[in-house]
Amino acid sequence: MDTQSVHQYFSSLQESIVSALATFDGKPFLRDRWEHGTACVIEEGNCFERGGVNFSHVIGERMPASATAHRPELAGRRFEAMGVSLVLHPRNPYCPTAHANVRCFIATREGEDPVWWFGGGMDLTPYYGFEEDAVHFHRTCRDALSPFGSDVHARYKKWCDEYFFLKHRNEPRGIGGIFFDDLNEGGFERCFGMTRAVGDNFINTYLPILQRRRDLPYGDRERDFQAYRRGRYVEFNLVFDRGTLFGLQSGGRTESILMSLPPIVKWRYDWHPEPGSTEEKLYTDFLRPRDWV
């Protein structure tokens, strides 16, 4: 178990993603270094209204409750957690929000072998759906995981569909992607390799979609619907997201953790899209589990 290599990879991944996104947007990211990592944030960019790419490496005396909810036998252990997490909110409503993260946990107790696992994934949250974008996103995710087994993508796509689901709304957050956690099957190198495959393919998955949509004209109607749907994103992150809960419970930096929230959001009481509208099409054609590829 080479944790130094994992640390180096996550650090270099943050740099490569930030470099690609800054080149695409035309505005540099603000780099905010703190005790346990670096937050790279962009606000009011040419494409991104807000976005962040964070690297963190946190060490603690006791595993937070969010990390042991599914593995209670690890409660009370020391822990080491490191990874990269990103969320990007473009200004143009025809450009989807994207989220991705890759992470590694090590739980230790004196006199016992360390327990390690990896987690990660990426998912897409469109406001106006385009079938070719959804197909591209899911196909790239599938191809990234194909070297690790013919059944891996199907399992992690299903996990993503089930995880990024707002139970209180009975609706998906977006069109899914891939998600995995507690990964330690097949040995350290295989799990680390799969995690790298996810991290290394994010730019290939997301930027082609932005290139197609960033210059589409839009107006107040589209921005209004985007702000409404962003409310769902906020609800999921604050109510259900394990990464947000872990960060807050482990003494993480609140400013960095909550950079995932969009800058402009709206809520309405019992609102429904007009029948036959492009807004309704998001619900009928995209916000449901589908085999896109």
Automatic annotation (TrEMBL):
It is found in: Cytoplasm. It comes from the Bacteria. It is an enzyme of class 1 (oxidoreductase). The keyword Protease does not apply. A divalent metal cation binds at residues 89, 99, 138, 168. Substrate binds at residues 85, 101-103, 251-253. Transmembrane segments: none annotated. Its cofactor is a divalent metal cation. The record marks 168 as: Important for dimerization. The active site is at 99 (proton donor). Pfam families: Coprogen_oxidas (PF01218). Its main location: cytoplasm. Residues 233-268 are annotated as: Important for dimerization. It catalyses: coproporphyrinogen III + O2 + 2 H(+) = protoporphyrinogen IX + 2 CO2 + 2 H2O. One of its GO terms (cellular component) is cytoplasm. Pathway: Porphyrin-containing compound metabolism; protoporphyrin-IX biosynthesis; protoporphyrinogen-IX from coproporphyrinogen-III (O2 route): step 1/1. InterPro entries: Coprogen_oxidase_aer, Coprogen_oxidase_aer_sf, Coprogen_oxidase_CS. Belongs to the aerobic coproporphyrinogen-III oxidase family. This is Oxygen-dependent coproporphyrinogen-III oxidase. It comes from Georgfuchsia toluolica. The gene is hemF.
